[in-house]
């Protein structure tokens, strides 16, 4: 039964538009997000004190959802700090110095490596594996940290996660909702993923190279990148506690340990949070081992010091993100969790209800169907998950294909791609936190730089899909 949009739906949509407007104007959105949470709480509970309580509890909900990401970023930062202090980092990055010699080569090499690893183990573990090692190499050859973050983000959370060719979590969800096989969705997504990936990354690289050539980005980023790296990991003082042979041995051992993690992930079929946890646990063991070797008698105290520095950085980075994440989580399960069943029977949440309403208000033909699936996917991705709404995209693709008479596989794949590119970690600031945090850049600035390439990619991909339906 169709759900009628109520006042809460329209208020939620209004605040989304307002937040996006503030982002485009490069203004902080914290106050707007808190106001949105309060107003939605007031409408849900008809009580001022419960609405005020809802602001705080929504923050707790957001922190709980983001805690795994906060922890992995903090631990990787702490580990990277001790690698730099001990001089091991220099040994680890030396093999890449010959391969990555220019900003352009750094962008494409990092991106392709990120995409390849992400296909097998998803992006969050891939960011943790690559960022701390490749970031210094890229900065050294002139690619600013924001360029590294864009490469890891677009190739990993964009191309790899939206296609999900190996693990096939995303295509299974959309295929089940559409009533077709997972293999058919994967096959149909290949040309769309190719078009989306090529257009988006080439556009991003062109804009990045333009800004580097003009000197604006380079001038603003050179000192900031070094300052951010030192602030996160400390200056590489390379104490003489470790001999050169010891540094070389550990520089080889650490990648081997992470390679063993990759092997275990494959054998045990670990993915997502489980894979990230394995990487995080390994990073803790590496931190402890090197701290004890490098600091000797002071190792016990230094272990705690490194962890404290890592957690300070992690929570500092996530501070601006928690309010906006708290607001957008209300578009899905958080609303019921915090305020109870305040939506009409049959509702699938504020975000999904808006997506369904859009699908029901447009005429049905191949062109409109493709545009609608892109918009529905993008709207459902606004909660920052990328996966919460792809089942809805599959359901709507099935409805449209019945009316059109063909194209269910293509429409399903298109909705999946739009939802994951928007919500999986290229446009929603808190969803792209892993890449932003590892590279030490502002997630909101990263989202702004990704906006034009991703929108251009979605437009071109949608047009191509119209001819494939």
From TrEMBL:
Sorted alphabetically, which keywords does the UniProt record give? Membrane, Transmembrane, Transmembrane helix
Keyword Manganese in annotation: no
| Coiled-coil region(s) | none
Q: Which residues cross the membrane?
A: 6-25, 32-52, 58-84, 105-122, 128-156, 177-208, 249-266, 278-297, 317-340, 361-380, 386-405, 417-438, 450-468
Q: Would the keyword Cell membrane turn up in this protein's UniProt record?
A: no
Protein name (Swiss-Prot/TrEMBL): Transporter
From which organism does this entry originate? Acetonema longum DSM 6540
């Amino acid at each position: 039964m169709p759900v009628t949009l109520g006042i809460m739906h329209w208020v939620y949509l209004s605040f989304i538009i307002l937040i996006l407007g503030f982002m485009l104007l490069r203004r902080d959105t914290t106050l707007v997000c808190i106001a949105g949470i309060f107003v939605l709480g007031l409408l849900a509970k008809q009580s001022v004190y419960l609405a005020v309580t809802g602001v705080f509890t929504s923050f707790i909900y957001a922190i709980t959802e983001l805690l795994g990401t906060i922890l992995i970023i903090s631990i990787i930062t702490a580990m990277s700090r001790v690698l730099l202090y001990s001089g091991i980092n220099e040994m680890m990055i030396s093999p890449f110095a010959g391969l990555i010699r220019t900003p352009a080569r750094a962008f494409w090499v990092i991106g392709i490596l990120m995409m390849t690893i992400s296909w097998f183990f998803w992006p969050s573990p891939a960011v943790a594996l690559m960022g701390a090692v490749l970031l210094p190499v890229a900065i050294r050859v002139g690619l600013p940290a924001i360029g590294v973050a864009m490469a890891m983000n677009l190739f990993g959370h964009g191309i790899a996660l939206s296609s999900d060719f190996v693990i096939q979590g995303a295509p299974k969800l959309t295929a089940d909702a559409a009533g077709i096989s997972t293999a058919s969705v994967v096959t149909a997504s290949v040309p769309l993923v190719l078009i989306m990936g090529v257009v988006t990354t080439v556009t991003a690289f062109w804009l990045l190279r333009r800004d580097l050539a003009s000197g604006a980005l380079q001038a603003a980023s050179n000192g900031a990148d070094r300052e951010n790296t030192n602030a996160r990991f400390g200056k590489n003082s390379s104490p003489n506690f470790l001999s050169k042979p010891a540094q070389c041995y550990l520089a080889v051992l650490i990648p081997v340990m992470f390679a063993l993690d990759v092997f275990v992930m494959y054998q045990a079929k670990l993915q997502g949070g489980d894979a990230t946890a394995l990487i995080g646990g390994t990073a803790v063991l590496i931190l402890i081992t090197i701290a004890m070797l490098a600091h000797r008698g002071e190792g016990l105290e230094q272990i705690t010091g490194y962890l404290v520095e890592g957690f300070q950085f992690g929570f500092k980075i996530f501070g601006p993100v928690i309010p906006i994440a708290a607001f957008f989580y209300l578009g899905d399960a958080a609303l019921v969790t915090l305020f109870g069943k305040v939506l009409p029977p049959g509702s699938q949440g504020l975000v999904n209800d808006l997506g369904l309403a859009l699908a029901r208000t447009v005429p049905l033909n191949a062109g409109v169907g493709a545009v609608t699936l892109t918009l529905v996917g993008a709207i459902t991705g606004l909660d920052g998950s990328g996966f919460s709404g792809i089942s809805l995209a599959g359901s709507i693709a099935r409805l449209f294909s019945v009316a059109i008479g063909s194209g269910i596989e293509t429409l399903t794949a298109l909705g999946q791609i739009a939802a994951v590119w928007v919500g999986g970690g290229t446009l929603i600031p808190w969803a792209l936190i892993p890449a932003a945090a590892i590279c030490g850049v502002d997630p909101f600035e990263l989202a702004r730089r990704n906006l034009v390439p991703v929108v251009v990619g979605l437009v071109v991909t949608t047009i191509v899909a119209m001819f494939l339906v």
